[in-house]
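Handout, section 4.2: multi-component inputs.
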Amino acid sequence: MKSRRALALALALPVAATAALSACSSSTSGTSSSSAPASTAASSAASTAASSAASSAASSSSLKTGLKVFVIPKQLGQSYFTTADSANSGGAIAALNALGETGTETSGTAATPAAQIPAIQAAIAKGANALIVSATDPTALCPTLNAAMKKGITVVTYDSDAPTCRSMFINQASTAQIGTSEVDVLAKELNDTGQIAIVSAASSATNQNAWIGYMKQELKKFPKMSLAAVVYGNDDATTSTQVTQGLLEQYPNLKGIISPTTVGIAAAAAVLDTPKYRGKVLLTGLGTPDSMKKFVADGTVQEFELWNPADLGYLAAYAAVELASGAITGAAGQTFTAGKLGPFTVGTDNTILLGPPFVFNSANINNFNF
Amino acid sequence: MRAVITSGRDPRPPGDSGGGSAGAGNLAERVFRIRESGILVVLVVFVAVTTLAQPRFLSEANIQFILVDTTVFALLALGETMVVISRNVDLSVGSVLGLSAYASSNLFGHHAGIPIPVVFLVGLAIGLVCGVANGVMVAAGRVPSLVVTLATLYIIRGIDILMFSGQQVVEAVLPNAFLAIPKSTVLGVPDLAIAVAAVIVVGDYYLRNYRSARELYAIGSNPEAARLAGIPVGRRIFTAFALSGAIAGIAGVLWAAQYGTIDSSAGTGYELQVVSAVVVGGVAIFGGSGSVVGAALGALLLGTITTALYVLGISPFWDQAIWGALLLLAITLDQTITERLTSALRQRRTRHV
Amino acid sequence: MSSLADRLRAAGRGAARWETGLAIVVLAVIIGGSAASPQFLTGSNVFDMGLSNGEIAIMTLPMTLVVISGEIDLSVASMLGMSSALLGVLWSHGWPMPAIFVAVAALGLAAGALNGLLVTRLRLPSLAVTIGTLALYRGIATILLGPTTVANFPTAYTNLGVNGVPGTNGDVTYSTLIFVVLAIGFGVVLHATPFGRSIYAMGASAEAAQFAGIRVKRIKTVLYMISGLICALAGVLYTFRLNTSVENNGLGLELDVVAIVLLAGVSIFGGKGSMIGVVLAVLVFAGIQNALLLTNFNQEATGIVTGALLLASVFVPNAARWIRHLTRPRTQKA
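Output:
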């Protein structure tokens, strides 16, 4: 009967698909990266990283090899983290490979503690020596992370901190500097005058709220500028679009928007990319060069900031290995060399800064491919 | 007794399901028209109240925003309506949209210069394949659509995540002509809104006048009776799911054009919003009644409310609660109307005896 | 045209076969999991599984009763979130914990009562109603907490996310213990009391049950209220385990709960299912997800496995019925 054959086909399809997909996808998601080949810039960076990492590994011979390190971003599937973590882009796993460790990327598929914790637990169960975590929540991970540290596992956080349950935090740039520089960039574009608004991510995100706090402080230096509102796009394209549209309608005198989140700034740019708003409402924030290229080219965005996520991951990997090898203890003032990135000094609160945020504009944006 | 099947087009007046008196048919028809105009009235009142509080709500830019934002949902609501009318549900539409958005926009990245209509066709094809899979499982397998489409929601989203592998498609690789689609307007009205409205009018015409469409309603009212009456239940349900998938596929391509930056989270959570829009629009969740115009108006109303909250400056933290309350209100209203209508029809029938 | 009793008996037979199949799957998961990873059967891994799945497992219990009675409750995760939000807000206002527990329980009961009222008194379809209350209750959670996060609960309570029940070598989480106790309780009620039998009856046919003297509306409302209360409990456990009360706690968990209940062989149409099946399904769900994590399986694809399991849960029983239908001697065509 036709329906029976059709039914058998319908049954076979998902089963076959599952089997095929699980066979194709390689065993460690950390080393697989099938689609969207990395750019030439990144691969040449990776090769120089490998050679200089080898030389620095030889010099800091007190570093252990064969460590099992797990890189646990907020969630899998966000290109920012893929760049930060993977070997192809010269991120954390590239550094780990160069140092002779085993690096694996793991996490949940939703940026929530409930999705991230099982991955952390599994990493511990699999015998992790070190965890590199971007915290989905400042406190919810602590029971798990503290248990890990009690077992002698090195725990460092990168990108987003869990201040009370890690040995070190690798921050992209000083929190204060990110906040103040965002306002400074926009103020320069606006000639220090005008009403602005902020399109943020989730209302509970640690880093967002910290940066916004500094933004508000910096704004006081510009008496002719004012903050109309802070709206939350939840790192969701539709929500970010709608809150941006709402801002434009609610505040007809709005002159500028800061969106310190890569999803938010891309959505806001898409909204502003019309003759009506381009050049009239200026946009800046934290964005990846790839997603901003079009908007910089047509003038919707003049300047924006970020750092190289791959460098962040790379540095975090070095920090974790240094800690796990006992070469440093994470106390303020200690120094170490992070391969191709050079020397770093641990600052207050056991935090390492990658460096000042990098300002992208039309002059340099085409040099980057992430 | 089997009805003689000749052509697909039946000239009898809409709503007359060939057995009941013309009076009953017209009463039902009138009531459902009232339900649709009811939503329209709510929409108009809502817009009026909001504009009074905030005149800029009715600015040209804002109307364009609302119309374009709701396009995708109105399309999804169209497909979902046909499925729900037949007493089924399609929870996989969000995942299908996401997969289509990814695959079709990825084409631009790897095949520069590919004609835009081809990309739309690819999106349609992807959606169609998913819809066919759903349809075969529900119709031939005779298994509950809630379970099947919940499963395909997971499976298709998983495939989407795997294919993306943590990358994203950025605006820079999408051709300007493609990105301009949601932005171009005619006399201030977005092209997209006009196109979707046209599709909905066509869909509505089909649902009111074609016998195969009326069979869908019959299936939703009483599947067993429909089967006994000789209606090809399996085929109709299969078609409904295939259409729902195909429409979700097209919606995915439009989503890509609208947002420009696409990753594996596109469309997450849309299914509940679409079902809400459909229910608010007067389509009974147990099937057998409702129209695509109502569903599209439902999508428009919900989209307007969200935007209104932002424009009015009401804390968006109230958005979800208002959405939920509105949904409950709509369901209650529909149930009351249906019950009144049923008892009215029953009274009419006994009067004739 | 079978009688109500016949239909229930047939349902009972079918259930026994499905549980046997599930038990085999559990065995397969245990064997496969421990073969794939030596850490699978360790005490600490069992502890981790209990932590990650405890609240979901607890929520499947009242959901089972609701579904067997012929309805559904999609608002469970939002009720969890709402009670978590209330817990956080009251704690941050200095309420004593016992008073907070009473308030949270009351809120859960009220939320369940609203669901029950809308479904029974207003005769609204439960799928649509609970989609509405899913949004409404999540919305209330958001209004209660706003953008704030409460994360300073006393260690006496947050301990349940760190240590196991004393006396079990630290392997059994408090949520697992609560789940086991509740499962036994729910199981006894469902399978060995008139109340439980009436739940099956109204799932098989609400009208017949009504005529048989069963107070369908009252019982359904009670079931929804129990669901609300249990979800409030789950919310409290969740909040303490993570030491965090934030508005998106539990977001999206309802799909997992429904998936487990369906996997357990509970029919979405009502009238069929068993508590043993639910317990086995919880083990399968938790076990497979955990095994996948431990074996470096591409986690992005775990959703595919969940979806495939769901499909299996409807097609395998159907396939069995088809085979029987095909092997039965054909009757004369009318």
